[in-house]
Amino acid sequence: MTGPWRWCLLLASMLLLGARDPILVPEISQHEVQVRQGFTGADLLLFGAILSPEGTRAAQDYDIVVVLEGPVRSIVLREKQKIAGVWLNADSLEFRSVPSYFAVASSRPIARIVDDKTAAIYELGLKWLQLSPIGVIEPREQQRFAAGLVDLMRRQGLYREEEGGVKISGQVLYQAKISLPSSVQTGTYTAETFAIRQGKVVASAITRIDVRKEGFERFVAVAADRNGWLYGLFAVLVSVGMGWLAGRLFALV
User: Fold this and answer.
1) Which regions in the chain score pLDDT beneath 70?
2) pLDDT tens-digit profile of 75-128?
3) Contact call for residues 51 and 22 (beta carbons, < 8 A)
4) C-alpha span between 65 and 44 (Å, rounded)
5) Are residues 122 and 231 both part of a single domain?
6) Would you say the pTM of this structure is higher than 0.85?
7) Could you tell me if 193 and 222 lie in one domain?
8) Following DSSP, what letter does each residue of the chain receive, concatenated?
């Protein structure tokens, strides 16, 4: 093949190579967080590289969004109302899949990176969390309860969004710092990184972090889980013993 056809084919090949999706190489500062007595939280550094399929610097600019999610659990949310001067439980709603922790860090505001549909598909933000309510409920009520739950978790430091929290250097390296509070739940956490260009997710990668109790806290947790009745009996005996000891001390004063 000679002449202009050869150059056309070469140009098409170069365009196809340039259009291939990048590769994300994610890493995290620590894959295990140990919860001991006096644990005050932990700072995680999520970092990595954006590379071409050949392992070289990516030829295009990308936005990066990092989502750190904790173990999922079921939660019953109750709404209190003041009736005859007394605060009582009124309406309630149970959500099937509520992350115990959820944080999003992005290189730019999410609204400037993707449209609402893409954000909902990948849950890129607190607004797009899929909490899966149990039972039949009106969409407006579901939205109200979901907003209340998210607000409650945010005030406890368990849900957070950091627009601009991801720093990208030279179109290659990225990093984001995300903090875990002292009240964080133990279990396996997933950190998913998304590379986005022109509103489309072109690459993603997942790393995992284990948050677990160690020392005496781990012994108590394991004992409570494996031998519940012995743990309960031990707790009662300790309470009685502490009460008796306190009484003796006050009697001597």
Assistant:
1) 1-20, 55, 59, 81-90, 215-238, 240-253
2) 888 777 666 666 666 677 888 889 999 999 999 999 999 999 999 999 999 999
3) yes
4) 15
5) no
6) no
7) no
8) --THHHHHHHHHHHHHHHHSPPEEEEEES-SEEEE-TT---EEEEEEEEEE-TTSSB-SS--EEEEEEE--EEEEEEEEEEEETTEEEEEEEEEEEEEES-EEEEESS-GGGTS-HHHHHHHT-SGGG----BSS---HHHHHHHHHHHHHHHHHTTSEEEEET-EEEETTTEEEEEEEEPTTPPPEEEEEEEEEEETTEEEEEEEEEEEEEE-THHHHHHHHHHH-HHHHHHHHHHHHHHHHHHHHHHHHH-
Tokens for 94, please give them.
């149970």
Say if residues 173 and 179 touch (Cβ distance below 8 Å): no
Please check whether residues 32 and 143 belong to one and the same domain.
yes
**Cα dist from 137 to 90, 131, 134, whole Å:** 15, 13, 8
Nearest by Cα to 177 from 188, 164, 187, 186: 164
Domain span holding position 155: 21-213
66 and 184 assigned to the same domain: yes
The verdict on residue 5 lying in a domain is no
Q: How far apart are CA 134 and CA 128, in angstroms?
A: 18
Does a structural domain hold residue 201? yes
The Cα 95–Cα 189 span in angstroms is 20
Whether the CB-CB separation of 141 and 93 falls below 8 Å is answered with yes
Tell whether 146 and 243 lie within a shared domain: no
Residue 200 token pair: 């489309």
Residue with the two structure tokens 């399929």: 53
Residue 73 lies in a domain: yes
Token pair 């407006």 in the structure block, residue: 140
Instruction: Tell me the pLDDT tens digit for each residue of 13-28.
Output: 444 444 467 889 999 9
